[in-house]
Amino acid sequence: MAADKTPKGRASVTDREALDFHANGRPGKLEITPTKPMATQRDLSLAYSPGVAVPVKAIAADPATAYDYTTRGNMVAVISNGTAILGLGNLGALASKPVMEGKSVLFKRFADVDSIDLEVDTENVDEFINCVRYLGPSFGGINLEDIKAPECFIIESRLRELMDIPVFHDDQHGTAIIAAAGLINALELTGRDLKTTKLVCNGAGAAAIACIELIKAMGFNPENIILCDTKGVIYQGRTEGMNQWKSAHAAKTDRRSLEEAMKGADVVFGLSQKGAFTDEMIRSMADQPIIFAMANPDPEITPEEVAQIRDDAIMATGRSDYPNQVNNVLGFPYIFRGALDVRAVQINDAMKIAAAQALADLAREDVPDDVAAAYQGVRPRFGPQYIIPVPFDPRLISAIPVAVAKAAMDSGVARRDITDLALYGRQLSARIDPIAANTQDIFERVRQYQKRVVFAEAEEEQVMRAAVAYMAQGLGTAILLGRDDVIRATAEKAGIELDRPGIEIVNARISTRVEAYIDYLYERLQREGYLLRDVQRLIHNDRNHFAACMVALGDADAMVTGTTRNYATALADVRRCIDAKPGHKVIGVSMILARGRTVFVADTAVHDMPTADDLAEIAIEAARLAKRMGHEPRVAMLAYSTFGQPIGERSERVREAVKILDGQRVDFEYDGEMGADVALNLERMQQQYPFCRLSGTANVLVMPAIHSAAISTRMLQELGGSTVIGPLLVGLDKSVQIAPMGAKDSDIVNMAAIAAYNAGM
Ligand SMILES: NC(=O)C1=CN([C@@H]2O[C@H](COP(=O)(O)OP(=O)(O)OC[C@H]3O[C@@H](n4cnc5c(N)ncnc54)[C@H](OP(=O)(O)O)[C@@H]3O)[C@@H](O)[C@H]2O)C=CC1
Ligand SMILES: CC(=O)C(=O)O
Ligand SMILES: [Mg+2]
Where does NADP(+) bind (predicted)? Predict the structure, then answer.
């Protein structure tokens, strides 16, 4: 089958790939999963009759309680009649379903908003309105999509009057918000003023009219805007193909064609159709033109074509395979998230402008590794090729809804107040990030105690980013260890600002503490074959030793390292400087987050082939960590056999370890030996082994040896569906964490926060 090609032959996906993607597995892109267990007779009695009658009566008595007892508060309907599907035109309600399903999954993926697509098979405005208005009780918001102008204007405004929940035509306002955000930044980069810039908008439909209205509301001079449609310029006095929405923006001008309109224009918005801009039009624009060719799936002109004509343009499209994607996916999930969370009755101009400004601001900030990954490893920096955040930017979820919710409260359309917006922002991240969800409480504690963490490899760019993020997230002071000139040069190249409170640079070469660290380390190592000059070299030249000594002597509370060396080497460096805590064993524990469960796996880092005594100590250490991380430990001593079946020599050590634990007075549940299938499956555990002492599924798994621990955690990580944090290093006398080699900045921040947390709160 032919590839779907843009005019210059760029093929990002083939038609076959697109069809296979939609057909494979379960056809379509979404399914519904229950949020409550539906396993037993009792569950049924609660979820359905008779239990369900209780919330029914409660809602009848007080409709507001529907937000407490049903999905309403987190549920948005994506509704279309298919009359303007992307830029493909009127292809009918059924054909619009793939787009509407797509919008629904994006709501879920990016903002944890539950959503369902509804395709309404009528072009009659009144029928459509009636269909939607009576669905109000089902949803917390209505996202209208791909309904053509001018009907969309009537539909949206009537529904807004009739319904007490936000009704938002995404092609209008979502597009306008993103285009406005991109425009704010493009104007800044080209030194233009909103009041004097000249803009042409091709297309005078849903998206175009809303874009023009929003930028006018933001202060753009109406006299500097010319709107065009299929008949050319919309001028005052024109009668052909007009409607009241076009008339409201008709220009006082002699220009009649798009070609004439674009001569000397500073900005052009394309919200029309593939290929609408010619080379000549682009050539005739002002210096440093701003070209947003937003038609989907193919733009009015491609970036390659523009590049052939001129090299001074700032170029954006609606597509994800070019830089500067001006697409409403950056808006609707987050705008509804904020609106739902304050139970806004509508999405007003103040909320839209707040969202646009928040997006524009975010693009000016230094970007995390996740964003660099979305750009194939090239880290975007605010500039002509990066005027708008990318859809996979994990900061969008904590930035945009906060701005929208605040604007809703300030402008009086919120039915619920959020008092601590900073906390709200952090809770938002946890909605889509399992690590954030699990570590949120820990991060809150770390924020209270403001520990000083030394980042041993701070000359590395991603470590430096992590250190700055640690400070910027309010977690504490970041100490960057390295050569001052190298650190500053790296920072400058990467555009990172280091001269801020909460960031300290420590240069090992000129530190006044060098002698103290050498004395301390020589005292420890002189009987281990080290000469004084060996120790001097370690302190002068090796940052792991220097950083570990800082922590050992109290100059820092915790340390994080590991991104440039393998785990065992980094651990050996640290162990030369820091002992195990008295009565503790140093082990590695990996935290696995999967489908709402948290499971700790030990030992994933230190003991190659533990003895029975080692296994018992590993169990104790891992249980302590689980408890400290907020989980009541239930430890399973894992083996390939379960309670003696099949008997084998390799399980003996594990059985022995259980006996050792029996002889000690440990304060946590444990049992074994058992297989992982029993440890993690309560039904099997209780039915087949009713004598098992665990009161629930195990949440701490002690592996019989490091190879089984490493193989199983890496398999889980690679197979998907679970997130692995760690291995976390526990049992040391001072707090140190070793991140995996090549870890990205957000992983290093997590490690630093856990290190700070373990430094004692
Ligand atoms: N990047 C993004 O996020 C978004 C992009 N869009 C894109 O914007 C476009 C319009 O969508 P939408 O507003 O919903 O659709 P509408 O049907 O409401 O409006 C289409 C408008 O485009 C005009 N038009 C069509 N072809 C041309 C042409 N060759 N030259 C000039 N004007 C033309 C029509 O003119 P007339 O009035 O004379 O018929 C009409 O005014 C689509 O390509 C869509 O994909 C839309 C939403 C979001
Ligand atoms: C992105 C979108 O909503 C459109 O092109 O219609
Ligand atoms: Mg659309």
Answer: 85-92
On the question of pLDDT at 5 being above 70, the answer is: no
The residue with tokens 């500053």 is 488
For residue 567, CA distances in Å to 266, 727, 742 come to 55, 9, 11
| pLDDT above 90: percentage of residues in the chain | 84
The yes/no answer to whether this complex scores an ipTM above 0.90 is: yes
Chain-wide mean pLDDT for the chain? 93
| Residue 348 vs residues 74, 162, 217, 531: alpha-carbon distances, Å | 19, 16, 12, 72
Ligand nearest, relative to CA of residue 295: 1
Among 14-23, 133-142, 494-503, the range of highest mean pLDDT:
133-142
Which of 103, 274, 352, 734 is flagged as catalytic?
103
**Amino acid (1-letter code) at residue 531:** L
Long-range contacts of 70-73 (CB under 8 A, 24+ apart): 71/114, 72/137, 72/138, 72/139, 72/140, 73/140, 73/340, 73/343
Question: Both 591 and 725 in a single domain?
Answer: yes
Residue 297 lies in a domain: no
Instruction: Measure the N-to-C terminal CA separation of the chain; round to a whole number of Å.
Output: 62
475 assigned ligand-binding residue? no
Q: Is residue 512 domain-resident?
A: yes
Nearest ligand to the CA atom of 182: 1
Identify whether 103 is a catalytic site residue: yes
- Is residue 602 located within the same domain as residue 572? no
Distances (CA, A) of 584 to 93, 185, 578, 599, 614: 66, 55, 13, 21, 11
CATH code of the domain in which 715 resides: 3.40.50.10750
Quote the CA–CA distance of 378 and 369 in Å, as a whole number: 10
Report how many domains make up the chain. Answer: 3
The per-residue pLDDT for 3 is: 36
The residue range of the domain holding 441 is 436-577
Beta bridge partners of 111: none
Inter-CA distances, 604 with 146, 528, 587, 644, 728, Å: 52, 27, 7, 25, 9
Distance of CA 112 to the CA centre of its chain: 11
Domain match, 456 and 563 both:
yes
Both 607 and 507 in one domain: the answer is no
Structural domain contains residue 174: no
How does pLDDT run across 321-353, given as a tens digit for each residue? Answer: 899 999 999 999 999 999 999 999 999 999 999
pLDDT of residue 501 exceeding 60, the answer is: yes
Q: How far apart are CA 340 and CA 75, in angstroms?
A: 9
Encode pLDDT of 166-188 as tens digits.
999 999 999 999 999 999 999 99
Paired with 269 in beta bridges are: 201, 292
Residue 154 located in a structural domain = no
Distance 89 CA to ligand 1 centre (A): 8
Distance between Cα 87 and ligand 1 center (Å): 6
